[in-house]
């Protein structure tokens, strides 16, 4: 069995040796342009995400400073008035 070449290996060798298909003329330029567009889009989305996160953090800080949720709520009943 080891002396017989594998069918898949023979096919791969033929593909690697054989005539190469013609590459379209503007393929490299269009691939580079598409890559640049994808990078710009990802960069813009990342900036947008960070901006939204920063705005949320600022809004939370302002809300927390105004409401002060960590402070105990005021008692609903006032102490009795003495001295009258």
Give structural notes.
Helix content is 62%, strand content 0%. The termini are far apart. The model has no long low-confidence stretch (mean pLDDT 89). The longest helix is centred in the middle third of the chain and has 41 residues, at 27-67. The protein contains two helices and no strands.
Compute the number of helices. 2
Q: Give the SSE string.
A: HH
Portion in helices: 55-70%
What's the total number of strands?
0
Major sheet, described briefly? none
Per the principal axes of the C-alpha atoms, what is the gross shape?
Answer: rod-shaped
- Low-pLDDT runs of 5+ residues are none
Mean pLDDT: 89
User: What is the alpha-carbon Rg in Å?
Assistant: 35 Å
Termini Cα gap: 113 Å
Structural class label: mainly alpha
| β-strand amount | under 5%
Which descriptors would you attach to this protein?
rod-shaped, 84 residues
Brief sketch in words of this structure:
The protein is mostly helical. It contains two helices and no strands.
Task: Describe the secondary structure blueprint for this structure.
Layout: H1 7-17, H2 27-67
């Amino acid at each position: 069995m080891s002396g017989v070449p594998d069918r898949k290996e023979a096919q791969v060798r033929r593909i690697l040796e054989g005539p190469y298909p013609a590459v379209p003329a503007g393929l490299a330029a269009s691939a580079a342009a598409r890559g640049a567009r994808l990078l710009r889009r990802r960069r813009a989305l990342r900036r947008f995400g960070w901006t939204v996160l920063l705005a949320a953090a600022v809004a939370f800080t302002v809300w927390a400073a105004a409401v002060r949720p960590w402070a105990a709520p005021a008692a609903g009943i006032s102490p009795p008035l003495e001295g009258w």
